[in-house]
Amino acid sequence: MIHTLSELAARLGKNQRLLGLDVGTKTVGLAVADPGLIVASPIGTLKRTKFTQDARELAKTIRDYSIGGLVVGLPLNMDGTEGPRAESVRAFAKNLLERPDLLGWEAEIAFWDERLSTSAVERFMIGEADMTRKRRDEVVDKMAAAYILQGALDMLANQRRLAAEADEDERDDEDDDRD
User: Alpha carbon of 112 to those of 63, 83, 130, 170, 172: distances in Å?
Assistant: First the structure.
């Protein structure tokens, strides 16, 4: 099922994690969140073959890391519209939803705007990490997946912070009413 990010996080069971996906035409970058949904860590890159094989590889990762939901990077155009790449990513997600038999799980998915994620990661790897082109090519997809997932986790953390502040304000108002 497709959810908003907040809905997806609310559906997670105890100690379940989110898996970030950077879906490309040749590879799928993978990153996993810690159980507290604070930090995203890159875990690998899946070389794309046939969808059935890709889904089976994802199923193994889902089992190994106690995944409760997928955050899929959606490559929007700079003006926010969806082009052929976004349509391809949506088709990949739709195929996952239609094949729970391959995943061993009813997929729970949220899309995350991934505009410029790969270029941001590449700029970091060139400027800050001083990586060679060969090394960048080996890690860029999983690092982009971590960048995508971290953005989603940061938004969830901000929502939790705002909700806690609102609860605190409400308690303060109730205390004032009693005085």
Answer: 22, 15, 28, 31, 35
The distance of Cα 6 from the centroid of its chain, to the nearest Å, equals 12
Tokens 């997600």 correspond to 93
Domain residue spans in the chain? 2-177
CA distances from 42 to 30, 46, 63 (A): 6, 12, 17
Q: H/E element holding 50?
A: none
**Of 57, 86, 62, 58, nearest to 74 (Cα)?**
86
List alpha helices for the chain, DSSP H. 5-11, 51-64, 84-98, 100-103, 117-127, 133-178
Provide the angle, in degrees to the nearest 10, between the axes of the packed helices 117-127 and 133-178: 110
Residues 6+ apart with CB under 8 A from 160: none
Per this entry, what is the length of the chain? 179
25-35 confidence digits (pLDDT tens): 999 999 999 99
Q: What is the pTM of this model?
A: 0.84
Superfamily per CATH, domain 2-177: YqgF/RNase H-like domain (3.30.420.140)
pLDDT, tens only, 64-87: 999 999 999 999 888 989 999 999
Average pLDDT of every residue of the chain: 87
